[in-house]
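Interim report to the steering committee. The following record documents the input for DUF2520 domain-containing protein (332 residues).
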Amino acid sequence: MDADLSSFNDFPAPPLGAASPESSRPHPAVSLRFGVIGMGSVGPVLAAAWRAAGHTLVGVTARSQESRERADAMVPGVDFLAAADLAARVDLLVLTVSDSGLPGLVSQLAESGAFRAGQLVAHTAGAFGLEILAPAQAAGAIPLALHPAQTFSGTSLDLDRLYGTHWAVNAPLALLPVAQALVMDIGGIPAVLPDAARPLYHAALAHGANHLVTLVTQSLRALRVAGIENPAAFIEPLLKAALERAFHEGEAGLSGPIRRGDALTVQGHLEALSRGGWRHPDDSDPSLPLDDLSDLPGAYRAMAAATASRVYARRGLSETQYRELVAVLEEK
C-alpha cells in the first residue's frame, strides 16, 4: 500500500518564488492513493485538484448532507467512507477540518490505530505546524503541514485560484521535497515555513484577508446609506488602485486626510459615521440592516489611529499634526 517516495527526493526543492503555474509538473512523480477528511470549503477543492493532477482519490468523509452535496459537485462519484476506514486505504491522508476540530480528530484517529508507518498525513490549518500531528508521527506516519494562502468558497471557482497560490509547507527535513511536490502538482508555489513562525504567519493572513472583507463591506454600507445606488461599482476602482499601490509602494502609497494631517476632516468623518443610522429604502430585510453603521466609528478610529502612528513614525506628520489627530480619534 505504501507508495515509493524515493523519486520525490530526486525532485529539487525550488528557491522561494522560483516556481510558477507554468513550471508546475502536469503529472506527479508518484501517483498517490489519497483521501480527504472534511468536506467544508477547502477539502472538496483539494480533492478535485489532486485527482485532476493524477493522484487517485480513494474517498472522502462528510458529516452533513450539505458537505456531501459539495463533495458530489466537486468530485462526482466519490466514495464516502468513515474516517478510520479511509485512513486504512490511503498513502496520503489529508485533514481539512477546522482548526478547533483538528486536535481531536488526530487524537481520535491515533487512538483507533488508523495511522501506520510510512503513511503521509497532511493538514491544511494555517495556525498549526507539525506538532499537531505528533500522535500520527508516533505511529510512524510522516507529518506534512500544507497551508494555502488563499480564500476558498468550496466551488469550482477555487480551482483556478489555486494556480499561483503560495503555500506555507513544513515536513521532516528529508521529506520536504514531498510536501513541495504535492503543492506544485496543483499549480502552487511552496515556501518552507517552520512551526515557530506559524502563529504570526496565520495572524498576518487573517488580518489582511478577513478584515479586508469587513473593511470593504463597511465602506459599501456607508456608501449605500449616503445614497450611492451601486456602491460596489462606485468604489471598486479606488480600492483596486489603493491595493495596487500598497503592494508596489508600501506605506508610501498612502493618501487621504491622515497622510495630510487633516484632523478636521477626520473629525467630520467620525461625526458622519456616528449619525449614519437612517432608514434606507432598500432595507427591507431586518436580518441585513443596510442602514446600521454602528460598527463603523470604532473600526474607523482604530484603523485611523494605526495609520496615523505609522505615518508619524515615518516622519510624514509633524508633532502638532499627530497630536491633533490623536485628540480627534480619542473616544469622547
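The two ends are 67 Å apart (CA to CA). The committee is asked to note this result when reviewing the revised timeline.
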